[in-house]
Amino acid sequence: MEMELKVNQDNCLGCGVCVVACPVNASISNEVAGGHGSKTTETIMMVENGFIKLFSPEKCTKCGTCQLFCPTDAIWLE
Amino acid sequence: MISNTKEVKALDFEISRSAEEKRELLYKDDICIGCGICEKTCPVDAIELGSIGAIVRTGADVPKIVCDEDKCVLCGMCSVVCPVDALEFKIDDESIKDMDEYPQLINSAEINDDTCIYCKACETACPRDSITIARDLPDRSKLVTGEIEIDKETCIDCGICEEMCPADAITMEHKLPTPDDPTVSSDIIVDKDKCVYCLICKKSCPVSAIKAACRTCSYGEYDLNPEDYKTTGSSFIDHETCVKCGWCQEICPVDAATVVKTFDGELSIDQDTCQACGACVDICPCNVLSFPESTKAGKRPEKVMSDENYCIYCGACESVCPVKAIDVKRTGIKHTPTKSKSWEKQIESLKT
Amino acid sequence: MPKHIVSGLKYLTAVELIREGYSQKEVAKILEMDRSTVSHYLNGRNLSWNSIEIAKKITEVCPKDFLILAYALMQDKARIVVKTCSVRDYKGIIKESCIGCGLCADICLMKAIVLNDLKAQIDSDWCCGCLICGESCPTNSIEILEVKNDF
C-alpha cells in the first residue's frame, strides 16, 4: 500500500527544513544539496510565498525524512 | 466456488482456504522487518511492500506488507523465504517448517549454556531484543568469610556503622528513650549474609564497640568453595524475532554464541550519491549502518558507514534508499533441498 | 425430469460397470442403490427409453459440461458416473513450473489431483478432461491431453 505525501499550509512556517532534508531534492538540485532552498520545480517541494508547496510529488520515495524534520507537522505521509 | 477468506486484526492478517486441506497464511507485522523478500518471491504477485521508510520512521499505523487475498494461492513460498517468522504457513494446522517436502532457509543462532558466563553482552547488543539472559548471582557470603561482633555493652547506639555500611548489613532498631530504658535503640543486628567484612564499621565506630576481621584477607581463600560462588543461569533466543545477524556471536567474550546466516553477499554504499537522510540506518534490522562521527575538524567522514559482519543481506536498506545509493548483492543462499524445480528456481532467484 | 436424467445416467453407468466385469452387488454398492433396482435397470424395467436417450446425449457433450451437469444433479456421486460414462480418456501433465499451491486439488470435482513433493499429480483414471484445473492454475502448469481410446 503506497502512502501519499501531504502538506498543510496552515501549519507551515515556511522554514524550508523539509526542502533541504529531502534526499531526493538534494539529488535533483545543486542549491538544495548546498543547503539552500530549491530554485526549481523539479524538486518534490519548495517554499513559495512563505509556504511549502508540492511540485513533483510523484518523485517522492516515501522515506519519511521530511516528516521527521518538520517542526510543525505541516508535511507528512499517510 | 472455492475462495480465500481474509481476517485482518490490527496490522496483522490471516488468509485461509479450506477444501481438500486447510491452508493458512498468518502475518505478524511487529515481527516483519520490511525487507520485501516475500514480495520478490511471490509467484502470483499477491504481496506488496508498503512505503516502508515512512512506516518505520514515523510509526505510521499501516502494515508493512499487504497481501491481495484474491491473488494469493496459498503456496507458502513467502513464509519459507521470510528471514524472520513474520509469515507463518500452516496446512491442516501443521507448520510447513515441520514438513520435509518444504525447503527451509538454513540459518541459526545458538548460545551454548555450558560456555556462557551470563555477562548479558549479547542481550544488550541484540538489535531485535531477541535474547534474554536469566542469571542467578551467588550470595555475597559465599565469596568472603570473616568474623564480626558488636559489643552491645560498649555500643552507644550512635548509628554511624549503620549509615556507613556499604552493604546495608547493619540494622539498628531505633526508638525513643523512656525512663525505663533510656537508650535510643533496642537492638543492633548484623546480617552475616550481607556483610562483606570490609571493616568500615569497625574503623568508623567512635567507641570501638565492633570487633571484625576478614578471614579472606588474613588467610586467603582456604574455606571458600568455588562451586558455591558460581554465577549460574540460562539463555533464551526468541527465534520468531531473531534475524541471525551475528551481533551476539561477535560480542560474546567467551565464544558461546554461534550464528549461521542464510545469505552470502555484499553491501555497498555509493558515498557520492548518498544524501545522509538516515532511512537505511533506521530500517536496518541488524544495526549494520550508522552515521560516523568526524574524527578531526575539517575532515569529512563517510556519509553512512556499514559493518558487514552483522549484515544479513535482506535488502531492506536498498529498497528504502530514496536515491538508490545502496546496492545489496546476494551471492549465495543456504537452504534445504526440495524436489520442486519451481521452488528451487524461485528461491535461487533471490540471488542478485 | 432431473430425477429421470439421474436414473438414466445411473443406468448407463450400471450397464458399463457390468460390462467391465463388476457383479450386480458391486455395482449396487458403487452407485449406492438397491440391488433390486440395479437388476431392474439391467432388465430394462422401471426406466423410460427417453431418459436413457437424454442421459446418453449428456455423456457426449463436452467433458466440462457433462461434469458440471452431473455434479449439479448428484454431487459427489457424479464422480463415478462421469468416470464410467466418459467417452474419452485423458492424461494430465504437470509442468515443472507447478508451485504446489493445491488450488487444482481443491477445485477438481473428480478429486483426481493430489499433491506430491510440492507438485500436483493427476490420476488419469479419474481425470474427465473438464480442464477446470487448468483454468484455475496460477502458473499455467497443467496440460490435459486426450488419450487415443483403443475400444
Provide an overview of this structure.
The complex is a heterotrimer of chains A (78), B (352) and C (151). Chain A has one domain: Alpha-Beta Plaits (2-Layer Sandwich), CATH 3.30.70.20. Chain A contains four helices and four strands; from the N terminus they run E-H-H-H-E-E-H-E. Chain A has helices spanning 17-21, 23-28, 30-33, 65-69, and strands spanning 5-7, 45-48, 51-54, 75-77. With 352 residues, chain B is α+β, with helices and mostly antiparallel strands. Chain B has helices spanning 37-41, 52-58, 77-81, 121-125, 160-164, 200-204, 215-219, 247-251, 279-283, 316-320, 341-348, and strands at residues 5-9, 12-18, 22-27, 47-49, 65-67, 87-91, 94-95, 108-111, 131-136, 146-150, 170-174, 185-190, 210-214, 232-237, 257-260, 263-269, 289-290, 305-306, 326-333. In chain B, the strands form eight sheets. A five-stranded antiparallel β-sheet of chain B has the order 1-2-3-6-7. Chain B is elongated and about 95 Å long. In chain C, strands 1-4 form a two-stranded antiparallel sheet. In chain C, a hairpin with a 2-residue loop joins strand 2 and strand 3 (119-122). The longest helix of chain C is centred in the first third of the chain and has 18 residues, at 2-19. The mean pLDDT of chain C is 85. Chains in contact: A-B, B-C.
